Amino acid sequence: MIELTGDTLTLQEAKDIIYNHAAVRPSAVSMEKVKKSREAVERIVKEKRVVYGITTGFGKFSDVWIDTENVEELQLNLIHSHACGVGESFPEKVSRGMLLLRANALLKGFSGVRPVIIERLLDMVNAGIHPVVPQQGSLGASGDLAPLSHLVLGLLGEGEVFYKGNKVDAAYAFSQEGLEPVTLQAKEGLALINGTQAMTAMGVVNYLEAEQLAKQSEWIAATTIEGLRGIIDAFDEDVHVARGYQQQVDVAKRMSHYLSGSKLTTKQGELRVQDAYSLRCIPQVHGASWQALDYVKEKLLIEMNAATDNPLIFDDGEKVISGGNFHGQPIAFAMDFMKIAIAELANISERRIERLVNPQLNDLPAFLSPQPGLQSGAMIMQYAAASLVSENKTLAHPASVDSIPSSANQEDHVSMGTIAARHAYQILQNARRVLAIEWICAMQAVEHRGLDKMAEATRSFFNLGRQVVPAIDKDRVFSKDIEAAAKWMEDDLLSEAHS
Length: 499
Hints:
Layout: E1 2-4, H1 11-18, E2 24-26, H2 28-46, H3 71-82, E3 86-89, H4 92-106, H5 115-127, E4 129-131, E5 134-136, H6 145-155, E6 160-163, E7 166-169, H7 170-177, H8 188-193, H9 197-227, H10 237-243, H11 246-258, H12 277-280, H13 282-304, E8 312-314, E9 319-321, H14 329-357, H15 379-395, H16 417-449, H17 456-468, H18 478-495
Parallel strand pairs: 1-2
Antiparallel strand pairs: 3-5, 4-6, 6-7, 8-9
Helix pairs in contact: 3-6, 4-5, 4-9, 9-11, 9-13, 9-14, 9-16, 9-18, 11-13, 13-14, 14-15, 14-16, 15-16, 16-18
Pfam families: Lyase_aromatic
Subcellular location: Cytoplasm
Protein name: Histidine ammonia-lyase
């Protein structure tokens, strides 16, 4: 059971909850803060104070007074009117992450919701009831209004949810689990949707899967080094310490470890003096991607435990401030940076694929074909990889440099952070398939060279791979192999067999 405080959620805990379905509960201390914050809201309503979103309308309607008897209707109208998401739904794991992160933010005690709101959000997490949330429609400020509105529909017992592998009505899932939908009271609708939890949940999923892919990329690259009889000297620690980037040093150290004892690697001058950059510069390029991922990790850890509501309630309601913590710019930048980092792992992988299949660049059978000419072998796998990396270059265009004013120019600068996070996820799927293709080609190459000559570590990785994709002994529908390898790489997030 993982306890949420609003301040201490880690990526490992988020991973356990999102992927392993660990149970979660709120901290008793944090819930006391929530109760005090709620009491402040109720005083504001009773005293008929003018406070944005509690006794006023929203956005451009912030100057419109709402009578006390209408504050509950105001919150329900807010959710219904803002549920304008369109397109395909977020993956279920992202919806689960959104529930988790929204509850964690409310537990900070600055939002003025009743404890039952947080309890029900966590009930949904523990019962595996995940709202169906359309991906498109968020500007990333004032928070993820449209996606989070769809999330709240589930809380209200409306709309659709993922439940036990199916899409069902939220009311049905609640009845099956013995849960009661909530009725929103003053401020609660606004508190639930004014935040960055769609982009951040997508970002957390992106980071966890990108981190695993970056690890796998090194194992795959090490196998390619053996398949191409690469020069081991390039990973000498002195070279990388001389430059000074720790992530570069770490990649070189791991590559040297994976290739330790290999009889397929060479020394400089033995076969050639230098390798191509896609082999020789693995620590520099992969290391730079790790630098970007470290930046992303830092920002996500902050945002996962951030108060992103508006307004925020301080000093038992004596200070209620309308600010802009819902603005997703920090996560928008982080997701755009991640897009570039993961796209580059795929770019350099595609260049290694070319070196594996091009007979003008190696001494392997042309296109790794068992019968060059009669059978095409891996020829079109390289085409597919080239197509994917080209698509990634388009997706890597930064979303965060764009902004369109909304709410009659009241909300005149927005982050587009959710678009950045969604595109990062697409790039991640493409990159995983590119690396899957490299893995298939690298395994074929080392098999040609002689498995008995491989390093112990890479041979172990090869053996895992051959359980997923058999050797190419004749042409077949290689799409199935690519997808099988990519699926294994995605599922390996849970096993961490090669961390």
